[in-house]
Amino acid sequence: MAAITAADVNKLRTMTGAGMMDCKKALTEANGDFEAARDILRKQGQKIADKRAENETSEGFVAVSVSEDGTNGKLVALACETESVAKVADFRNLVQRALDTAVRTNAATKEELLAAKQDDGLSLQEHITDLMGKIGEKLDLTYATLTAEKVASYIHSDSKKGVLVGLKNVGGADTAAVGRDVAMQIVAMKPVAVDKDGVDASITEREIEIGKEQARAEGKPEAMLEKIAQGKLNKFYKENTLLNQEFVKDNSLTIAQLLDKTSKGMTVSDFKRVAIGA
Predict the structure, then answer these.
(1) Eight-state DSSP code of residue 219
(2) Residues 6 and 31: beta-carbon distance below 8 Å
(3) In whole angstroms, what is the distance from residue 276 CA to residue 102 CA?
(4) 81 vs 57: CA distance, rounded Å
(5) Cβ neighbours of residue 276 under 8 Å, at least 6 residues apart?
(6) 229: closest CA among 209, 200, 203, 244?
(7) Which residues contact 212 (CB under 8 A, 6 or more apart)?
(8) Do 124 and 101 touch, CB atoms closer than 8 A?
(9) Cα–Cα distance between 231 and 214 in angstroms, integer?
């Protein structure tokens, strides 16, 4: 049995960020083999991930990056179980690592991002698992990427909600202010789509059925139900699709009118909204 020194424990702690007692236990179990000890700590993180798989992750931190030319945005959100963990340096550093990796690799999906190798040869997923072993909480990564003529971004003051919004037909307009306003609108008003054409058919069908049931409950004639339901559907579109929503800073304008007023023909091509715990 190899003798485990304080220097050995400190070395493994520096390598992994794990607690002192966890490092000592892993080194003892691995008979002083550092790589084997790292594997033991990683397995500990996986056990925690499996054990806490059903736990809610309502805290966390969102980070965003937009390319210098403004045509691509990356947004990562790392969720955890408690507010205290969301504030620790190792957690924030992992969020930044995830964002840097997204920018470096131009990952198209969450799966690609998690699989991306880091300088130490480990994947981003392995780094997340390692931190779960260290802090004893479930961590969950959300990733969004967006390419457009111009991409604007916004992170809410609680650092738990973020948006990427793509603008098109911008002409020569300075889109910084209006892009931020539209992104803030998306955070606050939670639109389900850019406009009615983007609303999922299942949502449309559900809203029509709800409208019919409400009208029926009010005693309206069966022959009128479809027309009444369509009216309610149009109201749903106005309240829940971005371009048709009233601008929260000036309800005399819709978002479509705000953009067109800023630059004739400007509109939104797409958006991504991420919220932790909501």
Answers:
(1) T
(2) no
(3) 19
(4) 4
(5) 57, 58, 59, 60, 61, 62, 77, 79, 142, 160, 161
(6) 209
(7) 225, 226, 228, 229
(8) yes
(9) 12
Task: Write out the two tokens for 33.
Answer: 């083999």
Residue 2, pLDDT above cutoff 80: no
CB–CB of 180/152 below 8 Å?
yes
Instruction: Tell the burial category of 135 from Cβ atoms under 10 Å away from its Cβ (0-12, 13-18, 19+).
Output: buried
At 78, which helix (H) or strand (E)? strand 72-80
What pLDDT digit, counting tens, does each position of 97-139 carry? 999 999 999 999 999 999 999 998 889 998 998 888 888 888 9
Beta-bridge partners for 154: 163
Asked if 259 and 268 touch (Cβ cutoff 8 Å), the reply is: yes
Radius of gyration of the chain from its Cα atoms, rounded to whole angstroms: 24
Which domains does the chain carry? 6-52 (1.10.8.10), 55-146 (3.30.479.20), 200-240 (1.10.286)
200, two tokens: 């999922």
Number of neighbours of residue 30 by Cβ within 10 angstroms: 19
CB 203 within 8 A of CB 181: no
Residue 249 to residue 95: CA distance in whole angstroms:
32
